[in-house]
Amino acid sequence: MNETxxxxxxxxxxxxxxxxxxxxxxxxxxxxxxxxxxxxxxxxLRDISLTVRRGETIGIVGRNGAGKSSLLxxxxxxxxxxxxxxxxxxRLAPILELGTGFDYELTGxxxxxxxxxxxxxxxxxxxxxxxxxxxxxxxxxxxxxxxRNYSSGMLxxxxxxxxxxxVPDVLILDEVLAVGDAxxxxxxxxxxxxxxxxxxxxxxxxxxxxxxxDNCTRCxxxxxxxxxxxxxxxxxxDLYLHAGTDPDQRAGGQLxxx
Amino acid sequence: MTELYNYRDLIVAxxxxxxKVRYKRSAIGFVWTMLQPLLMMLVFEIVFSSxxxxxxxxxxxxxxxxxxxLFWNFFSQSIVASMNSLRGNAGLLKKLPVPREVFPLAxxxxxxxxxxxxxxxxxxILVVTRHPLTPALLFLPVAIFLAALFTLGAGLLLSPLAVxxxxxxxxxxxxxxxxxxxxxxxxxKEIVPEKYLWxxxxxxxxxxxxxxxxxxxxxxxxxxxxxxxxxxIAVAVFILGAWVFRKTSDRIPFYI
Lengths: 258, 256
Fold this sequence. Notes:
The complex is a heterodimer. By secondary structure, chain A is α/β, with parallel strands linked by helices.
């Protein structure tokens, strides 16, 4: 169990924001001709290095804007890092948001297909898991009606059921356990525990420190795009929670003008 | 490429959804696709054939104009839809590692299928107007393939641009209108004055269009010299588009 599952080396991520908003070609041309194109650089991640072994369950904590979601997006291969390298071994199940790509005019079953196809599964794979997905969601006959009639809890159930129907090598969860009722959250946690037993690596972002300390053996604290602490969950959470009362702490990434 | 192959079922589903939406929207659905070209032809016949008297130059003007317009609709609608395909899936592209070229690709495939459906009323008109049906018609799949390659290239080229600059869609809309008048879609190229003939001659779209239209209207496969130019244009535009898309696609989630 000592194989490397996620390897991150010197990753920095920069969002380049135009100082003057330049949403159009016309304005771009004007600014370009004047030589007045300038950008603000928002570094969401700064020189992060991290190695995750196969089978670890890691919690990620930090304030809003600390770079947690950016880090998960880099690991999920949604965003390419500005500098550095991020490598993941094996099949990835990134759940950055439940039900990404749901079409509200389609029924629950049709959305299971659409969602799973977007996650890269084939139609045949989906067919063989369909019954299990519907079962786990606990939506019963509702899966046959358009999801525009669903409550947000029901949507979350459907989204989680699809995204976790296959045992991944790396599971990435961005604050998705907060929705849904207590019994479903329990079910989700059981499923995550089962993945863990099966050898999956799990990354969990949450503001609920109890969820982190219950599920994770290792924890990472991100602050202003930098790695502040990485280690045993209890110790890192302790540091993080005490820093939280410090009024000098800034929220948000570091803003640098170029 | 292998990644695209892994997502083939997604591409099929996106195409199916696109067609379903298109045909579900109107009450008579699929029939409308059949009816629209027929009505359009009626208009051309009255306005251009009778009023402008284009008939002399091109023989069966109805077939000439209709095949031109079907090609043009495929091209312009696919371009605009490709540009919207990335922007329309913004939420998705920011949250999932889906290969981004899936969206323009699915758009062009559904455009091709629409073009194929629209050939049915076109053939109906061929029969009704007693236009000779020649073996050259069997060349159409190749012609459509070249047109699709060209269009996909243009779509891949323009769709990232539409993400970075939101006025691209409007700008391209205007350019497409201009381009339609610079291409002999509904007028015979014989009426173009000598001094402007070079515009028509060096217009790459004219080459693609004629490869599609000649088998239908003239009943003959274009000469090899023409075909090789057409294929070269289609391949070049496709390679250029694919290259630009590859170069820029990593930036797409940042701007969308």
